Amino acid sequence: MTQASRDSPGPTDANGASSVDAQRVAPRRTPLSVRGEPMLWLTGMALTLSVAAVVALLGVVLWQGSLTFWPKPLRWVELKTGEAFLGLPTRAELYTPEPARKAAIIKGLRDGDISSAVATPNGRLRRRLYRVGNKEFNNQPFRWVDLIDIAQVSTPTNALLLERTQWGVWLGEPERIVRVTEHALKDVNPSDIELTGELPTRWGIKPVAREILEATDAGVRVREVVTVAKGARDTLAMLRQLQPEAAARRRRIIRLKRSDIGWVNTRLERERLALRSAQMRRSSGKISDAALAKSHQRFDERKQSLDAEYAGIEREIAAIEREDNRWRVVVTDPASKRFAPIAQTTPNDPMRISQIVRSVPGGELRVRDKLGVYFSRWWEFIASAPREANTEGGVFPVIFGTVMMTMLLSVIVVPLGVVAALYLREYARQGVVVSIVRIAINNLAGVPSIVYGVFGLGFFCYTLGAWIDKGPQNPWPANIWALGLGGMGLIGLGAAALGLFARPRAGSSRNVKQRLAAFCAAAMWLGAAAIVVGLIAYSPFFDGFFRVRLPSPTFGTKGILWSSLTLALLTLPVVVVATEEAISAVPGSMREGSYGCGASKWQTIRRIVLPMAAPGVMTGMILAIARGAGEVAPLMLVGAVKLAPELPFEPHFPFLHLERSFMHLGFHIYDVGFQSPDSEAARPIVWTTTLLLIFVVFVLNLAAIVLRSRMRRRLGVRAV
Amino acid sequence: MDANAHSSLSPTKRRKTTWMVRFADRVSTVVITVGGLTVVAAVLGIAVYLVSVVASLFTPGESALVTTFTASDLASPALFIEVDEFGSSAMQLTNDGQLRLFSLATGERIAAKQVFTESAAITCHARSVRNGAIALGLADGTTVLGSVRFETTFLTGDEPAELRDMRVGDRRQWGGVGGGGEGVVERTPIGQLRVVRAVSSFAKPVRLRKGAGAVRFVDYHRAPNKEYLVALRDDGSLLLNLVRRTESLMGGAPRLRVRTYPLPFTLPKGRTLADIAGVYVTGDGASVLVMYRDGLVQRFDTRDPKRAALAQTTTILDKGRTITSIGKLLGSRTFVIGDDTGDVFGVFVARNDFAQTPDRKTLVRAHEFRAGATSGLTTAATAIDASTRSRTFVVADAHGEVTVRNMTSHARVARLVHPDGGRIIDVALFPKVDGALAVAQSGDVAIWRLNPGHPEASAANLFGKVWYEGDAAPSFIYQSSSGDDAAEPKFSVVPLLFGTVKATFYTMLLAIPLGVLAAIYTSEFLTPKLRAAVKPSLEMMASLPSVVLGFIAAMLLAPLVRDWLPGVLLAFAAVPIGVLTGAHLWHFAPTRWTSRDAASGRLAMIAALTIVSSAVAISAGGLLESMLFNPSETDVLLRAGAYEPLPREQWPAWLGDIATIDAAAGRKLRAEGFAYRDGVVVKPAGSLDDPTIAATVRDNGFDRPSMRAWLDGVIGGAWPGWFLLAFPFCAIAMSMALTRVAGQVARRVDRRISQRGEACVELGKFTLSLILTLAIAAIVASAMTAAGLDVRDSIFGAYQQRNTLVVAIAMAVAVIPIIYTISDDAMTSVPASMRSASLGAGATRWQTAVRVVLPIAMSGVFSACMIGLGRAAGETMIVLMATGNTPIMSWSLFDGLRTLSANIAVELPEAPRDSTHYRVLFLCGLSLFIITFVINTVAEVVRQRVRKRSAML
After folding, report:
1. Could you give the ipTM of this predicted complex?
2. What is the pTM of this model?
3. Do the chains contact at B762 and A32, CB–CB below 8 Å?
4. Coil, strand, or helix at residue B742?
5. What pLDDT, in 10s, does the model give residues B382-399?
6. Of A43, A53, A427, which is closest to B36 when you measure between CB atoms?
7. Using the beta-carbon criterion (under 8 Å), do A693 and B548 form an inter-chain contact?
């Protein structure tokens, strides 16, 4: 103890002199300076700031992420210039206008011409960002408006927000729903066709308008437009009724196009590769011309049948699309009086109902309806594929890719980690070397993840992957290879013989000679192993598995397998450390009991140690998965892409495509948030993705914490 | 085993272990041992692999003499020799216009053709480095533009019968069918037949409009959209010609339109045209150089050819030397000059803001390759050739020595010795730098195969300063790619290392105090209940994906800091001061509040105070701004554009010896009442009363206090910066001094003084020390300002939106949980007996925490900091998203940066495999690996020691 504290007696006074007349002298007070209150408060401040940062961070993500899908009412904004538009308020901010305007505003504020609600006293203006959508006709789907310029804001009753399959949202007022059909009439005089009239439909008698598209001698092609609903209210009701059918048609078309046609294409590609393979074998003289001709013939036959199948699917798609094309809805932008078109190129043709993903009434909704929209949006987010360059739609492929990658990762990392931990704890002789290895493994947990990415790209993708694709770069000549094989055999035999010699008699320990022999044997084994690696890596008899696809690489590029392997290496230290901890926490008495009953070492490990260490292994695995789910930097290099055309899993043989690149939640955040052309539109999706990612990582971590505490309780020890 | 059941009945039978069990045991031992060792080896193999990839950056190139032959044809005087891309043939254009093709395998002449048929003799020639474009100067005063190059075609369709038996790698001379010309045919590895032919085409002679007599010297640079031709004629007229090529829609030869501009060229005293070594135009067409044999160079400024002028006359060689050969590097901006002692120099036109030249550029000798330094022999450099794809060049000398070097990195790719040992008259580098050819005077030709390795990178340019083409001075630059193929690759990893260190430093400056202090509070003062809630939630933060932090930093934090900058800076000082004030006021609180049981009340107070003072500080930023960052009248006038140029002789003297006007020089000028505008020094003119100036000032807000303007260096002096910087240091020094005194004071406290009285004394002391701190900071700031130093050269600087401050805050959030958790663990594991003993001896809880617990846990805390440091150094996503990723070297808190990790993430996906760029990125990865591995090992070793020591306690 230092001078100060010895001299400053505490409340419990141990000073002999004062205890004599303790009655008279009041206990001495601790001087304030030694209470260290100021420094103590500073430590408290540090804690507060740390916790506040955490809370603020999570709060922001939670707030932004969970509010994204909450439906907000549309606004009809009238500007002082007389212009008006329909918009969805997104966010507001203060900004500094250009100097001249700023000066005018400050003056206006001083004179009382400008209300302080729209500007701050130092001339900063308040402005609001409106999402105005209607990308076909508005140059910008978002629009900043200074509050000072706004004359009036009202909530339109009939407005509708359409989330569409393409071109983002459309804001407008529903006008009517029409059914468009085209007829080819034979032997009809064009002048006989009534251009307007009425027609009985299943919704009663409806007005109809006809248009002559083409009149030839053979006949007339007529387009018939039946208005099945008119006015905002009817249109909305009818839209509700027709939307499920339309959505089903859309899904069916997508399925036919993606899955069925995709499957035909896959098979066609396979046949093409088979043919190319035959051609390559022919040019290297492995097969005869006749065999090649046979392959050609087989290819032609298969191609013919596949083409027929393809045509069939196309016909089916065409039929559905014909039906789909009939149902149209006219939703007009009240400002420009233009309606949502079917395509950007044909602005005068109203959109199909099937182009609508979701229609949200723009006015004030009941809470129940709002919740309905909210959850349906969440469901779409989780269960569907992204649209519009990832800025809309869902993240299903992203979740799928993340989950699949982490599953592969855990399948790889757990056995490796457990074996390594078992070796280090149970088999290796504990000494300097093992503790150095242990420190090294611990340190690898601190090596930046991007370094693993660099290694993964260089080694897995470019070296191992390229080898799988096309075989060794410069193979050994066959005779050298055979020589290597022989050498390997000789060295192996020698090592085995030395090993036999080095084995001590039962009950005695090795003498010097035997030790030397054992050392030599080990060295020879290592040499033999190195030769085996060389024999495999430089085999002249291996031409690669995917030579026919070259020069486009199959495994020699980014892929989910390489990502999983890279992350497995990255998380291996985590698993090894956790497993080692768990194994060392298994009480020695248990082990000794097992040995005492006559169990062998392996039996003890399998029946006693591993089951008791299982929660620890699980902890390690979950921590590894959590890290794998949140890691981005290495994945940017070895596998994650902004838009993977195909999932790494498909319902046809061979099901798994480990060579494919994939989408990943963390990378999605980076990519959509920073690489997206329309960052304003992408922002909501990024927040929700962030929320999702944080949720996944936290749940996994929580699971790890719970498991760890359970294990500790069960074993009754505190792991180091 | 159910042996026990029988044991009482019969004597125990000794049971044997079944072979299955033994087998399983043996197998598991082997599997686990082999598997475990493999895993360990694989994990450690990462480092080995990285090293193996990086090592080839530093492996010197290889070379081997392939063949020599005597070919008197090749040795006959010729305009140039060029080798084709595959090293199969060489072509030569002779003085009389004959194009000859030689096989490089045998030296035999494959073909010869008269391609140039003008009557006048060729007097001089020049080639453009890249595309085979050539200009010939003729004796009749005309020039001919054309192109002579190799053309590669593949034989498609049926293979000619006589070539069918060719195997992969075979080469043959081939006459071709259908008059395609002669060439060399080769079977490629994928089985195609590839034909390489020399082709040439010449346009009609161009009659130069000015001057008279034969063309003595000519230089030609042809780029996709511009062509420069410079010619020196016998009458001493130097002409710069701009060639415009119009492709005719109908096909056929393009039409050439030449505009000729005479340059104001006069021979220097005592020199004749015969002394001229060469006339050159730089690749950007902005300068024309006339080089004399003794090293004198006249440079003409031809940015505007109509107003061309002699810009400078300088000497680029040492006295007494003579230029013996000149070459042009890719892009024609750097010239390789060899002299009669074998020294070789790289010369280019460099920017220099204060050069006494109209274009503010000057010719510099940036690269020097001294012959004596390597070989000891000094003989004249007789021939130079430069690569058409990289900045590698080859120099041959009079003793048969041929050296291949890279200009940027100074790396020597190979030193080749011609077996003949005689004077080498011509040398050619293969286009892929995979071979070289040298012709000796005797007619012996030697051909070498080269494996250049990675000459663009060497230890010198990866880690040292390099004078890059056109720059004012040598510098560290990282710029791996650019739009221009001819641009110099700049591979200095120093800016990246710097960025990593900078980001880590500022992060740790924030994270270490916060993390460690928070851990002290948690382990020593927090109630168990709160602790159980706070610690896991902070631990959870350690696993927060950094991409989330990066996103939030870029989306929310960066705009926040931009808008509230003075407030944020103020908060760094105001929050501690506010909390300390609270602590001193807390002394007045009744004892029952401050007792141990009521600790959570105190924490609530602290938390409230922290948050309130942060909010107050951030919103009070304007106050700080108006106190410190007011513009002076000069600043306002200069910003408003009211200034006039200063006569040259009144310029400050120190301007003479600097090359560029950077921000620091600009501020120094302004401090003297001047400013630098467009190449001239100006001084303010006019007055603020002038209504137009006043209006400009008012409209733009030039007279308002502004921290951003101060950071940009356009207003204010050095004082406020020094004051801001000095304040925290003074505060720390003051508090340390105070603690030393505190012990003394505590001993002398009059015990009759009431607690309230003592609290008053403490508060007074605090207030006094605060005032003293401010005063000392002000004095320090005045002293530093008087010394002429400005903090805006270092930690303050022009404001970028994605800056280090934002990154430091975001990374601190990532790192604090790690430091916090490990430090807290270290402090918690200090045995309770130590605490009890200390408290029992009468120490206060604070004294126990600081003098007992912290020293014991110190190494644990240290290792926590090291682990946090490791994580900060390797963090990728946050820096990638929250900084501008600009590889600049400035300590400024408001500049962007680029770290090693972010650099890898940005560039590796695009880098071609096994290229120099790829390997440089691997070098970044390896550096990162080594840095973090060392940091973590130190931390781990320290932690192991702690574990041993705490086990003893």
Report:
1. 0.87
2. 0.89
3. yes
4. helix
5. 899 998 888 899 999 888
6. A427
7. yes
